[in-house]
Amino acid sequence: AMYSIILPTYNERDNLPLLVWMIDKYLGAANIQYEIVIVDDGSPDGTQEAAKQLAKIYSEDRIVLRPRPRKLGLGTAYLHGLKHAKGDHVILMDADLSHHPKFIPQMVAKMRSGSFDIVTGSRYEGEGCGVYGWDLRRKVISRGANFLAQLLLRPGVSDLTGSFRLYKREVLQRLVDSCTSKGYVFQMEMMVRARHLGYSIGEVPITFVDRMFYGDSKLGGSEIVQYLKGLLTLFATT
């Protein structure tokens, strides 16, 4: 099996070399065939130059840069990455070092053992999972957002808003094609649609290190409002 890791990036020049090194280390040790498809949305900080250097080091089969001219949203970044991905399995993760590549072999093993369509990294279930570097407000918001979604949508998955996931390629293609939301709500809609389409979902406990160690934290007030709007729309339409 071949695994395509789709990485949407925006100003990740400092993180990218370390992330690629870690992916290579952990997937290499587990003997997992992989490629990294970098979908950069016109970063001004030189992320694309860093990606080109990495392609020279790790080979252009491994590091595939497929940039776009400007910021066009997460859902469309995944679609764009999918077009260029060669793998029959696809991993979606963040490029900001909040997702540790050491969990990928566990996700792969979980999918193989349970023949799941999707395996999601969960910050809330199981031993050894959790969130580091979040203040109480962020934890309350995240837990609250997740709790609300659980209550309204009953998805049967403990972590709806996480973005560290492994999909069978055709499953992801079908989900991305049917999803309408952008940004933060997108991850949640994917899970809700997956449940409606009858796909099986496995979970692997992960630790999540917050972005605020490195850059700007992603959840502002306007995003919380967007999240609630998106949640209610989803609830109304599913």
Automatic annotation (TrEMBL):
Known cofactor(s): Mn(2+); Mg(2+); Ca(2+)
Protein's GO biological process: dolichol-linked oligosaccharide biosynthetic process; GPI anchor biosynthetic process; protein O-linked glycosylation via mannose
Enzyme class label: transferase
Pathway(s) annotated for this protein in UniProt: Protein modification; protein glycosylation
Pfam families membership: Glycos_transf_2 (PF00535)
Domain (Glycosyltransferase 2-like): residue spans on this chain: 4-175
Subcellular location: Endoplasmic reticulum
Quaternary structure and interacting proteins, as annotated: Component of the dolichol-phosphate mannose (DPM) synthase complex.
Protein family according to the UniProt entry: Belongs to the glycosyltransferase 2 family.
Entry protein name: Dolichol-phosphate mannosyltransferase subunit 1
